[in-house]
């Protein structure tokens, strides 16, 4: 499990070491990590590091100090390093003298040919967008095709909310210290590869995390010698309508693919569902479904009285329940439907459905928004998007970066519903079910795509190959 931290938590941990940050041992370790990453990226761009060109873009604080000490190390390795000081009078003193002492040069402009640019404008102290002077420098850097290495995190991104201000730096790699910051999850695509350097600080357990693929693989229910169809979970899917039979097919077929448990289907699209998945057991209504261990309701069911009745019936069963799509629209009109529930509830809104439930858009601060809604609804809330956030009512959050955006296609949410519903029926807690489903969904999208646009059917078909890849990681 990777934990993500606020700037205040990181600063507290750093203070607890008793190190004098400015030029102290922590900064030396941080600078060594930055130098190591720059050298690795130089090698990746071609043979050797001697004579290659690196520009440090240095701001007013310790973030700039890290870069200047790193620059000194790089100069000693034969790299041609220049430092562009955005605020020369406030540049980190000890760092600047170390850099100058070994022959590092200060410059006013961006060299025409450049291998690596180091973004050391701001780190944990950053607030708001990149200021105009720095923005102009990075515009020129973009034209050189240089690899951008961010110190700590790309400047112009809020460390705690991950809000990507405009303008801001987009990095190929971010080198951070001790542990990742919240921004590395919340603004993952802007940070590029995240390298976490051990600098010897201790952090408490974080309330925001993301599981590794190996952890997701360990959680995933796979049949053992004593399992049968019931022991692995029976999920009841309530989805689809005469207008939207596809939602029923996609969510049910995804549930079938996700686990070896049993999938039941309730709704008017039984014929279409059975044509694709003959193993699905259909029933006339929620009450007639027989044994079910979790419900997943909502995709394509409509938002009228009949949908309301279906949702009320499902929730009254007080089994683990996932509510998606139209089910969420119905719930937004009548939140009292959740009253008195003891079983876990997992709500899976996209931004629009979220706004209906919460009364406001989840952006820009998605983490705060998803936590607040989970607390208010007393339910686990999975906010969809490239970065999926799954919040429990107690404020703990698990996140997943899909790694690509190929899943941004109609019907992809129905597939997620099926996968997460199957996991709930197998007994996974709501937050784990949500984040594990999002992980496999993202892996399946990348696999199905291979670089070309995909539809939700292709995504669903790639669930099995994605799971095969994951199950190879089980110990
Ligand atoms: N803690 C740790 O464990 C370790 C921390 N270390 C390092 O220290 C870094 C934190 O350093 P820090 O506290 O000096 O703040 P930092 O980010 O350099 O900002 C400084 C100044 O920038 C300014 N500024 C603000 N916003 C701006 C903007 N948008 N655009 C332009 N300028 C802006 C603002 O000054 P202002 O101009 O507003 O007066 C602010 O005071 C951390 O990220 C890591 O790299 C490692 O060395 C070792 C381990
Ligand atoms: N930009 C994106 N990158 C990666 N995944 C995305 C992106 N946008 C949406 N997704 C994922 O695709 C699915 C879309 O769900 P949803 O919006 O409910 O679509 P639909 O209602 O058409 O099925 C969700 O799992 C969501 O997390
Ligand atoms: K930075």
From TrEMBL:
Residues the record lists as binding AMP: 384-388, 413
GO molecular function per UniProt: ADP-dependent NAD(P)H-hydrate dehydratase activity; ATP binding; kinase activity; metal ion binding; NAD(P)HX epimerase activity
UniProt-annotated binding residues for (6S)-NADPHX: 62-66, 123-129, 152, 247, 300, 350, 414
Swiss-Prot/TrEMBL catalytic activity: (6S)-NADHX + ADP = AMP + phosphate + NADH + H(+); (6R)-NADHX = (6S)-NADHX; (6S)-NADPHX + ADP = AMP + phosphate + NADPH + H(+); (6R)-NADPHX = (6S)-NADPHX
Entry keyword annotation includes Glycosyltransferase: no
Limits of the YjeF C-terminal domain: 212-470
PROSITE patterns with a match to the protein in the record: YJEF_C_3 (PS51383), YJEF_N (PS51385)
Keywords: ATP-binding, Isomerase, Kinase, Lyase, Metal-binding, Multifunctional enzyme, NAD, NADP, Nucleotide-binding, Potassium, Transferase
Binding site for K(+): 63, 119, 155
Record's cofactor remark: Binds 1 potassium ion per subunit.
InterPro entries per record: CARKD, Nnr, Ribokinase-like, YjeF_N_dom, YjeF_N_dom_sf
Assigned EC number: 4.2.1.136, 5.1.99.6
Cofactor(s) needed: Mg(2+); K(+)
Domain YjeF N-terminal: 10-207
PANTHER family: ATP-DEPENDENT (S)-NAD(P)H-HYDRATE DEHYDRATASE, ATP-DEPENDENT (S)-NAD(P)H-HYDRATE DEHYDRATASE FAMILY MEMBER
Protein family according to the UniProt entry: Belongs to the NnrD/CARKD family.
Subunit structure and binding partners: Homotetramer.
Functional description taken from the UniProt entry: Catalyzes the dehydration of the S-form of NAD(P)HX at the expense of ADP, which is converted to AMP. Together with NAD(P)HX epimerase, which catalyzes the epimerization of the S- and R-forms, the enzyme allows the repair of both epimers of NAD(P)HX, a damaged form of NAD(P)H that is a result of enzymatic or heat-dependent hydration.
Protein name per Swiss-Prot or TrEMBL: Bifunctional NAD(P)H-hydrate repair enzyme
Species per Swiss-Prot/TrEMBL record: Gordonia neofelifaecis NRRL B-59395
């Amino acid at each position: 499990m990777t934990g993500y931290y606020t700037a205040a938590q990181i600063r507290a941990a750093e203070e607890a070491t008793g190190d004098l940050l400015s030029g102290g041992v922590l900064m030396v370790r941080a600078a060594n990590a930055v130098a190591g990453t720059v050298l690795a990226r130089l090698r990746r761009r071609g043979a050797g590091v001697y004579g290659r060109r690196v520009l440090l873009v240095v701001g007013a604080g310790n973030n700039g100090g890290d870069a200047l000490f790193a620059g000194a190390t790089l100069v000693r390795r034969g790299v041609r390093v220049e430092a562009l000081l955005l605020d020369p009078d406030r540049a980190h003193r000890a760092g600047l003298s170390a850099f100058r002492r070994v022959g590092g040069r200060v410059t006013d402009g961006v060299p025409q040919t450049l291998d690596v640019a180091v973004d050391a404008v701001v780190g944990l102290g950053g607030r708001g967008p990149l200021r105009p002077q720095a923005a102009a420098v990075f515009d020129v850097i973009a034209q050189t095709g240089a690899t951008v290495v961010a110190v700590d995190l790309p400047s112009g991104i809020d460390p705690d909310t991950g809000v990507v201000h405009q303008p801001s730096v987009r990095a190929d790699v971010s080198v951070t210290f001790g542990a990742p910051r919240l921004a590395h999850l919340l603004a993952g695509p802007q940070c590029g590869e995240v390298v976490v350097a051990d600098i010897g600080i201790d952090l408490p357990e974080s309330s925001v995390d993301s599981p590794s693929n190996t952890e997701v693989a360990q959680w995933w229910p796979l049949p053992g010698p004593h399992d049968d169809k019931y022991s692995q979970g029976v999920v009841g899917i309530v989805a689809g309508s005469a207008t939207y039979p596809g939602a029923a097919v996609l969510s049910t077929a995804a549930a079938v693919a996700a686990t070896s448990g049993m999938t039941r289907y309730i709704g008017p699209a039984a014929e279409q569902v059975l044509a694709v998945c003959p193993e699905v057991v259909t029933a006339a209504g929620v009450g007639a479904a027989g044994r079910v261990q979790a419900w997943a309701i909502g995709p394509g069911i409509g938002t009228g009285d009949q949908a309301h009745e279906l949702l009320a019936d499902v929730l009254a069963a007080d089994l683990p329940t996932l509510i998606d799509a139209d089910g969420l629209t119905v719930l937004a009109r009548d939140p009292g439907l959740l009253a008195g529930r003891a079983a876990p509830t997992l709500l899976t809104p996209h931004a629009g459905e979220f706004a209906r439930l919460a009364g406001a858009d989840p952006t820009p601060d998605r983490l705060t928004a998803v936590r607040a809604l989970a607390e208010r609804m007393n339910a686990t809330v999975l906010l969809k998007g490239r970065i999926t956030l799954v919040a429990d009512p107690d404020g703990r959050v698990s996140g997943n970066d899909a790694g690509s955006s190929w899943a941004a296609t109609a019907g992809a949410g129905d597939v997620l519903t099926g996968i997460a519903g199957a996991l709930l029926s197998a007994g996974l807690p709501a937050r784990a079910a949500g984040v594990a489903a999002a992980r496999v969904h993202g892996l399946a999208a990348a696999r199905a795509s291979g670089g070309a646009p995909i539809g939700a059917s292709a995504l669903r078909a790639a669930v099995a190959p994605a799971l095969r890849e994951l199950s190879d990681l089980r110990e």
